[in-house]
Amino acid sequence: MKDSNFLKENNARHMWHPMAHPADMLNNPPRIIQSAEGVRITDIDGNQAIDAVGGLWNVNLGYSSEPVKQAIKDQLDKLAYYSSFAGTANEPAIELSYELLDWFAEDGMVRSFFTSGGSDSVETCLRLARQYHKVRGEHGRTKFMSLKKGYHGTHFGGASVNGNNRFRTAYEPLLAGCFHIASPYPYRNPFNESDPAKLADLCIRAAEDEIIFQGPNTIAAFIMEPILGAGGVIVPHASFMPKLRELCDRYGILLISDEVITGFGRVGDWSGARHWGVKPDMMSTAKAITSGYFPFGATLINEKIADVFENDKSGTASIGHGYTYSAHPVGAAAALACLAETKRLDLRKNAAARGTQLHDALLALMDEHEIIGDVRGGHGLMTAIELVSDRKTKAQDMAAGPLVQKVAFENGAMLRVSGNNILLSPPLIVTESEVNDIVHAIEAGLIAARA
């Protein structure tokens, strides 16, 4: 391993970073994270902080899960890789498919298609949705609907259904036939409606209006996050997703629940759709399935879709889609170990308790700091602070976030800034005292931003 001087001299010089301007990284080299233990990360200069980001919503088990590390080592010693394309399989992938059947039985999921991550899982959902309708003879159902502010990864399909222009405009034209409706975002919405229940109804009406305008028999699927993550932790009213499920059923449209963030306990339950009492047709998962220890994901499929594919006699249901690393044996072994630890620790309970604690503490900060325009969350460990320069006008403060982040790190917590939002998603093993430490670090950053 090269020494720290070499690493600092070459930082951002030869690699481009995701979600960043290359010139900005050259001029302001990113922090080099050297090690991690528990919920804490340490940079190359020895500065330590609680990871209030949880890696990227994904390190639910923290950084020191020995059972997961051992499972990876044991599998590497046995079988480091083999393809899962037609004709071959591996032991841990078969076992994982059985485990997921039990894990998501309450959600109605009966089949798995393994991927390398969340964007892959979303892409698989979109492809299978179109193919499902073709197998049934409805070849005109090719369009997709989604929510503005929603995030569904970075592949062309996922970027096309993304509801944030930051991930779209530089890469357009994207996939044709993708349409977006207003998200149930009480703080900012085109209806100027702050009542969450009324807003949910308005958004459902807007969705139905778009369905009718496009033609119901042209739409393949509606994809949504049960709680919108990267868009700013937008929590729909409890009525929204059930009403969307009913709407999709009425018009023969598949409902895809993007569980890449919300799956495996982060919302205080094993899935976000279950949190709202909804059974989707497909679920995209990744992130916490291996808690960041290995790139891996899964698309989960319900019985209705499985029956159509598995009973096809025409050959139309042959799946012409997959990835080199689909059902990677090391990834599957890591996932099995992660799921076992997640269940053993019952992390959904801690996520619910610590999420309530964090949300309540941030609401208290809002009473003291005018720069906070809105605090969102309260459903597990997904929370956001929206920064404004004027509460009355809700003018976004796009400059304060980086300073809050810098000072918070100096006070012991790593935050994530996205536009004028501070996004918080600590590991699900975080303790009560560690949540208090995160809040104190945030407060130091807020004070500095208004000094």
Q: Which strand order does the major sheet show?
A: 4-10-9-8-7-5-6
Distance between the termini: 42 Å
- Could you say how many structural domains there are in total? 2
Beta percentage is: 15-25%
Radius of gyration: 22 Å
Largest beta-sheet characterization: 7 strands, mixed
- Assign a percent range to the helix content: 25-40%
**Can you tell me the CATH superfamily of the largest domain?**
Type I PLP-dependent aspartate aminotransferase-like (Major domain)
CATH architecture level-2 label of the largest domain: 3-Layer(aba) Sandwich
Low-pLDDT windows of residues: none
Number of strands: 16
**How would you classify the quaternary structure?**
single chain
CATH level 1 class label of the largest domain: Alpha Beta
In short:
The chain is of the alpha/beta class.
Could you list some keywords that capture this structure?
Aspartate Aminotransferase, domain 2, 15 helices, alpha/beta, 7-stranded mixed beta sheet, 5-stranded antiparallel beta sheet, 451 residues, Aspartate Aminotransferase, domain 1, 39% helix
Topology:
Blueprint: H1 4-10, H2 22-27, E1 33-37, E2 40-43, E3 48-51, H3 54-57, H4 66-78, H5 91-103, E4 109-115, H6 118-135, E5 143-147, H7 156-161, E6 178-181, H8 196-214, E7 219-224, H9 240-251, E8 254-258, H10 272-275, E9 282-285, E10 297-302, H11 303-310, H12 329-345, H13 347-368, E11 372-376, E12 383-390, E13 395-396, H14 400-410, E14 413-414, E15 416-418, E16 421-424, H15 432-449
Helix pairs in contact: 4-12, 5-12, 8-9, 13-15, 14-15
